[in-house]
């Protein structure tokens, strides 16, 4: 789920950047630092929308620190959320799908029983004889998140396609 969050980041600059364009450089440095990063507590920071306040710089050894308040769009997955993803790889244990920045694993136990792993196919895939469907690398699927694990810098998810209206899109 996407959220609009007000966040604070401390940006450190070398004195060589203390020019009339200091503010522009702080904006660029903040975006480069936080966009695309993951905080286990907040989720993935997708985009900085606005910079609300740049605090007065604090002189430290070798530069200065600036406290920047900003608004950003943050993505955090939740249990029960239905999302669309792209299959990254298929093996006999299950399927790995990319849901934006999130990697989601779908175990064979959470895939309908009519799908069978075909190791001889190139690339390896899951095929359904009943519905003539194939899950292979690059396929678009709709899945439901059944669990998440949060690390300090990454979020992992487990999904299912065993319920109604889930599977190959």
UniProtKB/TrEMBL annotation:
Please name the SUPFAM superfamilies in this protein's record: N-terminal, heterodimerisation domain of RBP7 (RpoE), Nucleic acid-binding proteins
Question: Where in this chain does the record put each S1 motif domain?
Answer: 80-146
Q: Where in the cell is it found?
A: Nucleus
For molecular function, the Gene Ontology terms on record are:
RNA-directed RNA polymerase activity; single-stranded DNA binding; single-stranded RNA binding; translation initiation factor binding
Q: Which InterPro entries match?
A: NA-bd_OB-fold, RNA_pol_Rpb7-like_N_sf, Rpb7-like, Rpb7-like_N, S1_domain
Alphabetized, the UniProt keywords read: DNA-directed RNA polymerase, Nucleus, Transcription
Tell me which Pfam families the record gives.
Answer: S1, SHS2_Rpb7-N
Gene3D superfamilies xref list: Nucleic acid-binding proteins, RNA polymerase Rpb7-like, N-terminal domain
What family does the Swiss-Prot or TrEMBL record give for this protein? Belongs to the eukaryotic RPB7/RPC8 RNA polymerase subunit family.
Enumerate the PANTHER family for this protein. DNA-DIRECTED RNA POLYMERASE II SUBUNIT RPB7, DNA-DIRECTED RNA POLYMERASE II, III
Protein name per its UniProtKB record: DNA-directed RNA polymerase II subunit rpb7
